[in-house]
TrEMBL record:
It comes from Enterococcus faecalis (Streptococcus faecalis). PANTHER family: TRANSPOSASE, TRANSPOSASE INSI FOR INSERTION SEQUENCE ELEMENT IS30A-RELATED. One of its GO terms (cellular component) is cytosol. It comes from the Bacteria. One of its GO terms (molecular function) is nucleic acid binding. One of its GO terms (biological process) is transposition. This is IS30 family transposase. Signal peptide: none annotated.
């Protein structure tokens, strides 16, 4: 059941009836309003208010009853900016749940869009692999290619390539000039960043979960 608020005309009529001292029940029947509604206005008028001041107060309350913006604490904001600078995406921040953040993934993305946080370190869109045959032969692996014009078939690949772009490993660069030390540093960094596709675990955590204790001791 919907409720329609009193109009300015009704309030003026209630004020006129109030000055004539009829009962609340009688005014409620005349205006086809509940006795509780009329009683609230009567009580306001008895305190020295007027019909128009009652209406102005109602309009003010209505403006203040909307959805309030979500405000994150300084500690939460510092944590978000720190993790994003380390390569974490907003959905990973929420999904990993290492630190309580009082907002949803959608709200957090909107905060980045609204420039609440620095967007410089957010993951970028990825590019295609190059020299795929050489990579396949050298590492003895199969490489999957999506159908033309269907990037949705390789969303994880696009995302992963975007992460590498953030590490200054661009498609157009000459990788012959990239040192093995730098590549290993990038690999180490990315293997310690949680992934949504891995249920918010890091690649290293997933890898280690498949190893027996004896295998782990051999790695140390």
């Amino acid at each position: 059941m919907t409720y329609n608020h009193l109009t300015p005309t009704e309030l003026v009529m209630i004020e006129a009836y109030f000055n004539q001292s009829p009962s609340v029940s009688k005014v409620a029947n005349l205006l086809q309003r509940s006795r509780q509604t009329i009683y609230k206005v009567y009580r306001f008028l008895k305190s020295g208010g007027s019909a128009m001041s009652y209406y102005k107060q109602y309009k003010k309350n209505k403006r203040n009853c909307g959805r309030h913006p979500i405000m994150l604490s300084d500690e939460q904001q510092e944590y978000i900016q720190k993790k994003v600078a380390q390569g974490w995406a907003p959905d990973v921040l929420i999904g990993r749940a290492e630190f309580p953040i009082a907002c949803s993934v959608r709200t957090l993305y909107r905060m980045f869009k609204d420039k609440t946080f620095d967007t410089h370190d957010l993951p970028m869109s990825g590019k295609e692999f190059s020299n795929w045959k050489k990579i396949s032969n050298t590492n003895d692996i199969s490489i999957y290619f999506a159908d033309p014009g269907t990037p949705s078939q390789r969303g994880l690949n696009e995302h992963s390539n975007g992460l590498l772009c953030k590490d200054v490993l661009y498609k157009a660069m000459d990788f012959n000039g990239v040192s093995e030390t730098f590549i290993q540093s990038v690999v180490s960094k990315r293997n310690h960043i949680p992934r949504k596709s891995l249920n918010y675990k890091t690649p290293l955590e997933v890898f280690l979960s498949y190893l027996a204790d004896d295998d782990l001791s051999n790695l140390i």
